[in-house]
Amino acid sequence: MSDHIVEDGPNAPHKREMNPLLKFALELGPLLVFFFANSRSEALAANLPFLAGLGGPLFVATALFMTATAVALAVSWAMTRTLPLMPLVSGAVVLVFGTLTLWLQDETFIKMKPTIVNLLFASVLLGGLLFGKSLLGYVFDQAFKLDAEGWRKLTLRWGLFFIVLAVLNEVVWRGAGIVYAPDTKAADDFWVAFKVWATMPLTVVFMLFQLPLLKRHALEEQTVPVPPTLE
Q: What are the structural domain ranges in the chain?
């Protein structure tokens, strides 16, 4: 069992590895729950009456988003006895802003959550670089093994990309409110669709552009020479 609650840093010895695809699924799963809960809120409320008391579709989706995030973190803990750094930070913000959304019945909080999370990630990554720490290794070290310079460059690029995502989120949810006014449901649906189906493809495209960097700075597997035996 790990002595740390939060996952160890990149290339740490004795770190329990999780399948990269499973880790990706746990991080993406709550977002998919959020999308489908928003689009199927009426059916969900009909089958689960207690959801109807939460409010409109976005409020139902927010409650299930919070639940799915907690489940994903619990699964990560059960499998590795540590919590992944980035999903942990995102989950904390989801809990705070989701609670405010449901308590105050104000959708603004959950819509601003991606902005806050992305700016927080950007601040953590870029701030870490100022202190000589490439914190992105906490996220991707199970998928990639890079040298120190590679982690530094990748961390810088991701920090800047998170700023771009924060700006895009603000433009989309505020712009949709103007374009679709006074139809708030249409504006909400557009923002949720962007959050799920545009943000992820943009992230995948960004990751593909990082492949040359990953190739240049990948650590080659080192084989330990076996000394000859004396017979």
A: 20-217
